[in-house]
Amino acid sequence: MERIPESPPKIAPVTDGLHRPIWSVMIPAYNCSNYLKEAIVSVLKQDMGENLMQIEVVDDCSTDANVEELVRTIGEDRVSYYRQKENVGSLRNFETCINRSRGKYVHLLHGDDRVKKGYYLAVTEIFEKFPGAGAAFCPWEHIDSYGRFSHQSRLEADEPCILANWLYKLAQHPRLQYVAITVKREVYEKLGSFYLVQYGEDWEMWARIAKEYDTAYIPEFLAEYREHENSITWQSYQTGQNIKDIEKVTAIIISYLPKKDQRKMLQNAKRNYVYWAMNETFGTWFDNKNNKPAYNQIKSILGIYRDKYIISRIAVLLFYIWSDPYRNFLKKRLK
Where is the secretion signal located (predicted)? Predict the structure, then answer.
C-alpha cells in the first residue's frame, strides 16, 4: 500500500450498529509529543461527554516518546489511543483517523495544534443552522513552537454564513488549515480521503468538498495553528517539495472548475502561490541565513512560474545571499 495514494482512498460507512456520537475528534500524531498534551487538553476543556464526543489519538509509530503513556496520563480513560502497526505516513494516518471515526462530524486535530474554547459548540450550531453544508470552518491564529501568538488568518465573512463562490476563491490559493475545519463523515464517505501529495493535500480536499457541497463559515478565531521546524510544512519547504506538490494540486483543483475558466484560473493560482512562496523565502532567509532552503525554493519557483516581479525578487535575494559573507568579513575587519 503506497504511502501517498494516487487516488482518493475510500472511507467505509459505519455499519456495526454501535453507538454513534455527534463528534469525532481524531488526533493524528507523529513525533509531536512536545505539543500533544496541549492539543488533548484543548479538547478536554470543552468535552461534551462520551455520548456526544469521541476523542482518539492515532499514533503513526512515534519515536520521540511513549505516546500511549502520555495519552493515558493526560486523558485517563476519556481519550482512546490507537497505534499503527508500522509508520504509514501522514496521508494514510489521516485515512485511518477517518475510518476509525464514528461521529457525524469529524475534526482532524493535528497533535501540534490547539482549539480554543467554544469551537465544538460553534461548529455544532453552524451545522444546525445550515444542514446542507458538508464542512464548516473558522478563522485561526498562528502560534509558534512555544504557543505564543504570531498573527491571524484572514476573515472570509463578517457573520455566520454559507460562503459564496467558495470553490473559485479556494482555486486561487490555499485559504484553510486542518485545525479550523470540520467535515461531515458522510462527505468523506462519498468523496474519499486525502491523496496525491504530502504538502497541499488538504487544499485539494477542501476544494473537492466545495465542488460538491456548501461550506459554512464562523467568523470567530476558535483555532490555533502551530508553526515549527518539525512540521511537514517546514520539512517540505527545506527541499522545495512544497512548490512541486502545489503544482500538482493546482492542476487538480482547476479541473473542478468549468472549462471556460480553467486557463485563466490556473495562471492566477500559480502566480498567487509563487508570490507568497517568494515572500516567505525572503523572510525565512533573513531570519536564519540558511542558503540551501532558499536555493531550493528559487529553483522550484522558476520551474513552475516566472515573471518580471519574480525575477527581480530572486535577483535581490541572491544579491543578499552572495554579498552576506563579504559584509560579515567587513564587519570583522572594522571591529
Answer: none
pTM for this model (two decimals): 0.90
Q: CA 113, 115, 116: angle at the middle one, nearest 5?
A: 140
Tell how far CA 293 is from the center of its chain. 21
56 and 40 in a common domain: yes
Pair (192, 96) in one structural domain:
yes
Q: Is 219 exposed, middle or buried (0-12, 13-18, 19+ CB in 10 A)?
A: middle
Largest CA distance in the chain: 78
The number of C-alpha atoms within 13 Å of 271 and in the hemisphere containing its C-beta is 9
Give the angle 14-17-23 at the CA atoms, nearest 5°: 55
Residue 11 included in any domain: no
283 shares a domain with 138: no
Please, what is the end-to-end C-alpha distance for the chain in angstroms? 60
Mean pLDDT of successive 10-residue stretches along the chain, which has 335 residues: 94 92 98 97 97 98 97 95 97 98 98 98 98 98 95 97 97 94 98 95 97 98 90 75 90 96 91 90 87 92 92 93 75 61
Range of the domain at 110: 23-226
- Residue at which a domain ends, from 194, 226, 258: 226
Residue 143 cell numbers, joined: 502560534
